Queue: 3 jobs
Job 1
Amino acid sequence: MGAPILTGWLAGDTSAGLMASIGGFTALYGSGRPYFSRAMQLAVIAFAFAFSVGIGIWVAPVGWAVVIAVAALAMIATWLSNALQIGPPGAYMFALACAAGTAMPAAHIGPVGAAVLVLGGGAFAWVFHMAGALISYRAPERSAVTAAGRAVIGYINSVGNPEESAARFRAAFALHRAWTTLVNHQPSQVPAVGAVARLRALNREIHLRFAEAMGDASRHQSPRPQLTEDLHKFIGQVRDPQTVPALDGNAIPLGHPSAGAAMLEALQPGSNPMRVIVRVGVAAVLAGALTSIFHFERAYWAVAATVLMLHQGFDWMRTLQRSIERLLGTWIGLLLAGAILIIHPQGVWLALTIMALQFTIEMLVTRNYALAVVFITGAALTIAAGGHPVEDAGGFLWARGIDTLVGCVLALIVFRLLPPRSTARQIPEQLARVLRSVAETTGHLARGEVTTPDARKSRRALQLASFALNHAYEDSLVASRSQRSAAEELWPVIAAVERLAYRALSTCWAIEQLGGGAARETAASMFVNDGAARVRGAIDGIISAITQGGALPALPALPHVLEMELVDLHHCLQRYSGVTGAVIS
């Protein structure tokens, strides 16, 4: 952030330096990704910042065009940020960059010049962010595998105590994130005996120990101590995995779905991601239209506030809390911004001021958002001033405060008009989704074919479905009192379905470890007398009871491998007979 400002000052155009510093926001993204993937992502983000600012300045003189352009920008940024999981700060920074850039008194730059300057700042941020590759190119991959190993150790230590379920989820998610880092975020072709291939082998060994521990826990046995010793050894090998043999391609799981699949899934009609996109678009249009009708100085600040409130798809309570924090932080931050505008730092002092503000923001934003907003406001308005004295500082600050108030209020109104899908409906649907995935995975499992492309897709779908079920339950805990009560009643059913899902996944890993003919023979012995069909029939009856509120059919004779989990689920549903139908209605 500071280097472009200093460069602009030395070149005799501080406004150009401040415009270029907007590209420095590129450095907020990409942390934790492998460097190859990070390079691609940061390049796209740098171009996106340049495009946002350039379009904003281009349409600024035309009121109706501003509303359309900013609303479209907000919706596209929300869609791509959430679908592609680019992580915090997500879509908001693109709206903020657009607001700061278009508010800047720099008419001599023009839209094309502004876009080029922002892209230049983004390019500098790209170089700086990628510098770590010169020291340790595989550090992100090693970090992901190490985190997965530690999470599995945490799960093993928690078996048999109340933290077991939460620790199991954390371990599964850490392993999934590690596979995403080692598979999805890598080039399509990696060296067969290179560092990534060996780290994949280590991660597979960690995953096998996780599967074994889950199998022991499902039989109410304590995992053997050797598992923890093995995991510590694997973590020690992460730094130098040269002695670890690489994996065969069929042994590599799938990570997240492809970018195209994720983008299409986010646009499914009626889905919560689509509701978030529509909510952001409606709020942006309303904010832009309202500020244009009442001749606010700039519509962008109000739109930026609405995007901030809505782009992450939070529930009502967190959205309300974020709005309050944003308002309080902004209005206090106006005092800080006013002090900076009065002091009017120039040159090196201006660069140091922006650097100090941005550093403070990054140190605070995850710990105390309301306090971070104080400094976010100061940094945004300092950049927006363009390095020039502000004649009417009071009016300038008052306008920003009113814009933020309007944006936050509109965001809350739109949220109430377009609420998320009821968690009471979501949970039964997610339960059914997990169960269908279990049935499909069981078909592959029964044949002993768990490493084929279709089998790996089924296993990935089951893993992702179990994560979605957990997230739906967590969302219900911060929803309305009635939805929270209904979800808490269903918790035993949710826990039973999660145990069934993890049992199926751990059995897949066990069969995979056997491989070849041994895998097929073991699978056949597990599912004798058409056991897979009986499992599917039992699951179909359970799904019907959950989604349609019908009678729960008796269980047939089941294969031993999944019998305990299915019987437990059946008992939970019997105990809460009628609850699922009542929740849906």
Job 2
Amino acid sequence: MPDSTPTVAAAEISRLAGVTRATVSNWRRRHADFPAPVPGGSEKRPLFDLAEVRQWLRGHGITAADSPVQRLRTLLRAEVAPDEVVALMAFVGDPRAKATDTVRVAIREAVDEVGVGQTLAVLSERGLDGPSTGVYPTDQLVAALMADLLAAATSPAPNSVLDPACGGGTLLLEATRLGATQLSGQDILPVQAARTAAALGTLAPRAKADIRAGDALLADAFPDAEFDAVLSNPPYSQRDWGADELALDPRWVYSVPPRGESELAWAQHALAHLRPGATAVLLLPPAVAARSSGRRIRMELLRAGALRAVIALPPGASTPRQVGLQLWVLRRPGVGSPGDTLLFADTTRLPNRGGQPDWPQLASTVLESWREFDSGDAQAATVPDVTAVVRVMDVLDDDVDLTPARQVRAAVDPGNASAAAHLAIGVLGERLGELRSVAETVREWNSGSGTDWRPVAVGNLIAGKAVRIVTATTDPAPADEPQRPVLTGHDLLAGRAPSGVTTPGSPVGEPIEEGDVLVSRLRDDHGAAQGARVAEGTDLGAVPGPGVLVFRTDPARVDPWFFAGFIGSPDNAAAMYGTTTIRLDPARLRIPLLPIAEQQRFGSAFRRLHQLRVTAHTAAAAARDAADLIATGLTAGALEPPTG
């Protein structure tokens, strides 16, 4: 552990005090006795003596907004060097190990509060010493889709799975859901390798895991091994991946990768580690499908039948969020004749919800299309304007451009395009009718009396048992438990249905019940975000996920919609804290104290306003879908404007 004086940056001070970083900056300007920066920081990121900060906070009557996770972050920053985190990862992965010092006690407390996965993420932050270039986590929904593509393939169900760039182990954990028991992984960062080993050892104890640290391209930890499947989200745009040292490497069956094609080196690395006929799914940037330098390798992959599908995901599906990534489905040749067709899917064309992907529909469309294609039914695999089955010889032109949007657009059928456009226009008309109907319910309002509300703290309602917070459990779900929908804080902000699914070993809390008040802990910087609603429909039975507070009211004393409406009001801005992400402290929430009859009257109004917002989102999404379908048909020559 470091011998230097424990220090903290402004971000840690804001977490300690439960305020924003802007508040910390104001304290520095307005209070002459605020601790001075100590050596070791910079002008943009000054550091402060932790003991002096704590003493100053106590002296000004500021109670630390402490939690086990916040205490752990502070201790890691103050007492643990980045290169010491690997040993702490191993401690997390061994529940029998005794906590012998302050940091390990804090780790145990954090595990009890938020579970193994999030605790390992906190340790990883310190081990990486902040964000590291090229360290891109795999979004949980994308990881689940990648594993499900393996399960839907005609190749045998995988028992042994490799991830040569395993990161935090998300993909290998998903492989255990498929029944895989032999898990192998490698990562160039020792902290990430240790994190994966700890996660698998704790969350998938029945599986045999072999996780190594090292560069899988330059120092392959499994040089002669073949696996039933490969799942990977390899690094992007590497310039120093070893092009010169590996020029004669036997893995380059489909041509030597140029220096600027590290992703195609990873693709061939994956194929080299597959048994004949086995499948790999890789998450890659879109440039790999079209860069001129990779044309030769793409051509050879197609000729050999090694590339079976290219699936474009919408931007935001996984980090980096601004890029629409692609899934490449590869299969090592050797069983049967090479495939003469290729599946393309452009999921950006699928309908969305409030500007966000409708993930359940996206996943089911992709999986069903891939399943039908892989079983040999090209017609059933084709979804107009979304998927296309293309002959390999039609792609082998001067560019060998495998961009799904281009291939799907070229395959647009005029009859299907016209029918889809007319259907979308019909759906839009229905949604606009619903919007007009709901808008009528909020037309008439009476003038208020202007009387000030008499507020009551939610904490008092909880103490009086009129309201209770449904707390999440940290007990991991059994490995054989079926997946359940997960509602996130972002789902609430977007006004959409649960978008996530549970994963093996993840904590599963008490399911959401009818009448529960669902509140997003996340708020934007524009005041009140409409992230509170009463559970109904698809919410029921879902598991509350990250960023979700669940309140259960006594309906005889507190009307749920009344509670939800005032919780989401601008008056509760005082309950928000944080820096770049604004979060909600339930103890600071306040609602008016009104008789139950008055609560129900206001609750009815809040429910109508919620329906108005949801219907408006749905109508806007229908308008975008109709416009996009018509535009695609016009530009592809499948539709023409009316004459006259």
Job 3
Amino acid sequence: MTHRMQEKRSSIWMAALLASVVCLVLSAPTRSVSESFEGETDRLRKLTPQERFNYFGLQYVMNQFQKKHFLGLGTGGERREWIERFWIDLDPTPTTEANERRIEHEKRVRLARKLFSKKKAPGWDKRGETLIRFGWPNRRIETFGNIGFYRMIPPGEIWYYESLDMLVEFHNFSLSGEFVYAINPLGRTGRENADRWKSVHDMSGSGNVREILPVEVLSLEEIEDIVAFNPDEIDYIADSDIRIRQPKDLIAIIEQEKYNRSVNNFYKFMKEQPLVYSFEIEQDLLPVAFDITAFRGGPGTIRTEINFEIPSSEVNFIRKEGVLSAGIDLRVVAWDINMKEIERGGDRINAAQKGGEIFIGPSHLPGQVILTLKPGYYRIGIEAYDTNSGRRGVYRTNLELAPLGETLGLSDIQYASSIRETTENVKFAKGNLQVVPHPLRAYRRPFPVHLYFEIYGLDTDKAGLAFYTVEYRIIPLEKRRKGPVFEDIQPAISSRFETSGFGGRQVQRLTIATENLWKGSFRLVVSVKDRRTFQVVEGGSKFSILD
């Protein structure tokens, strides 16, 4: 080869490499979660090496506000406390001791540092970042590079996640062992993309590939828990028999479309869900309806009731000695604004039926956990656990409890599936009433709507009697069509009555007929007027009617 031709080839290599770098900047996937901010580098210098390592692993989870807050803390102790609170807030099972998300994340970070280590920050290349974000792939393929007269193909790797239907390509442009995301992988021809797809799934696309097996780089203990991605069946793989019968162009088109979809899924996940954990893919959540109702408790406290309803069709019943039985454990934990645990409680729902092949009891099983809290702001973790199937329903919510003092006030309105008088020691008892909670707040006609609430701070006469008026209105939340136009929204039902009772604290139960209501959502507004002081207090909540 002449000296001029060598120079020309070198220039082609450099031009291709330069163009590739430009394309890499332009086509890099969106990673808004881990974007840096001005001053980040200066703040990082103040951390210890271990703190920097922890931060680089957490950067894919934190937003910019959290990064600035963490790096702005003055001492190592404050930063350690911040991380503990951070992981508590992300715990997928907040009422249990184990934090599955933290355990898996920290394992991924250690593996990224071990397998794809780099001296410069963050301590790993893009393969390490992908491992931290999405776990270990189902298939990892090594692709070999090639230099042509007009074209340079760098060596690299292809990772494929079956349950996410996501394909990630890496290139080793510098040949130094630092892998970056592939430059514009969708810019190849359809045939090249089809060959890429076949290389991942049946190793028949090219001889320039080799599968990297986990046992080559990891022990079974290291990779356990982060590879359990519940592989889905691929709906189409062009096997050899089909290739013989089908036109080659058709096969290439189908496989190119599947390849493009898998690559696009990578960009989609990086933008919309840049971290996915194996338990999130595997879990089959137990559906749970819940609401929270607050009533005055002892001095300075709020009786906080977390009410549950779980579809009995979703619960696993087991037959034993001719009895169908199921059990659901309910757990609730409350933290303050600093994620310090304040109180936790639990309950158990038991359902049993003699004989029969299927459970024919109530369609929803009710439960209730009661916490005694002071007025304030709380984070609430809620979990329902089916003891027979192992399915969980896990939820979080924020709760602000206002004080219920001595002035005129209302409790929350509690919807019930039934309210009856009782003198027995029964579940869901409130004084001499049993109020079975109905957090779904959905009633079928013609069955009535049952409500319970409490009134506080009523003025009393010398005999201790309080006199007050209760008025309620039911207002549709959606306009009804009347011919070609919509009717104005008017109360569907309204009523008022005067009553009295001993003491400034009174209990009210309402039963509202549904014959004059229709399918849809409604708002209930309750007003109470103290007839001695003429003070008025009002509360409201939503419910729905089903046909």
